[in-house]
Design goal:
Largest sheet: 5 strands, mixed
CATH superfamily of one domain: Outer membrane lipoprotein wza domain like
Helix content: 10-25%
CATH class of one domain: Alpha Beta
Strand order of the largest sheet: 7-6-10-8-9
Number of strands: 10
Strand content: 15-25%
Shape: elongated
Number of helices: 4
Length: 216
Amino acid sequence: MRSQLVKHVTSVLRVALCSVVMASASVGAVPQSPATAKPGTPRSAPPAVPAGVPLPAGYLIGPDDVLAVVFWRDKDMSSEVTVRPDGRITLPLINEVQASGLTPDQLRDTLMSAAAKYVEDPNVSVVVKAINSRKVFITGQVAKPGAYPLTSATTVMQLIAIAGGLHEFADAKNIIIMRTENGKPMAYSFNYKDVLKRKNLKQNIDLKPGDTVVVP
């Protein structure tokens, strides 16, 4: 009986020891999972499109405007350019393109057509970085005569304020706005004192690019 008991105890201990060894092996092993697998080669991200300036209603590209032209998969063709006085821009491979007089969307379509000769399925963005072509002018009896950028709606009264106001002996009743419409010179009268008195407010018109305000 004693020998049988010893054999039974020995068998139980062996089973327990094997269980401990197997459990230890299980704890030490680190199973492979899809989450720990090495990722594949990442795709190259498209180039970032730079932020542009807010565009006024009816905006058309003009000389001295600064444009960022970004081709999605071709950095060598991307460029920041300034519209020349002749209204054209120069880009790598495409060379010269007419930009003045077009909207940014129209220029983008033109560039996509031109680039299709050299690049398969071109994707291009046109961003206006600076508007330097839209200017109005004020001359005569004001504190700061000169050219001013027209980046948003601006009235005659606002331009006078931007230019520092009228001189003491300015003829405030006979201010003239000179404008060219359809190739013909036009002149509009502006009575500063009437507007101050809230009379004939319609004469305080929104200025257009190229307008010149003359303060005698």
